[in-house]
């Protein structure tokens, strides 16, 4: 018995309270497990976490976390391209104008993915790089 009988608490009431506590604990545990399983389901269906399919789902998820992670990935690609050019003297491929927002860059990638469903099995990093390079080419008279 989890609940001790004490002054003013008879055996029947103690047993009833104990059953309520056990039922509540079981309910909370089941709810937690169900929540964990359902929160992972959208990502588990995406397959390879490196694929365009996985990232398209993540980037268009109603969950803010997926959208933020997607935007950070796109930002990292742009910043890495810039860093390679500045620090290592390598050719740059992605040169967005200074006023291009992270949201606009993300939308460029999403548009590219949606227009090429046959390529979604390919690595997201490649697809995103191709999308950004096509939209923000470093050739021509662009301000960097």
Write up what this structure looks like:
The protein is an all-alpha fold. The chain has five helices and no strands. Helix 2 packs across helix 3, helix 2 packs across helix 4 (102-115) and helix 3 packs across helix 4 (102-115). The N and C termini lie far apart (72 Å).
Sum up the structure in keywords.
single chain, 65% helix
Write the layout of secondary structure elements.
Blueprint: H1 11-44, H2 52-59, H3 64-88, H4 102-115, H5 124-135
Helix pairs in contact: 2-3, 2-4, 2-5, 3-4, 4-5
Short description:
By secondary structure, the chain is an all-alpha fold.
What is the number of helices? 5
Number of strands: 0
What is the domain total for the residues? Answer: 2
Q: What fraction of residues sit in β-strands?
A: under 5%
Q: What's the end-to-end separation, in Å?
A: 72 Å
Q: Give the radius of gyration.
A: 26 Å
Instruction: List the helices and strands in order.
Output: HHHHH
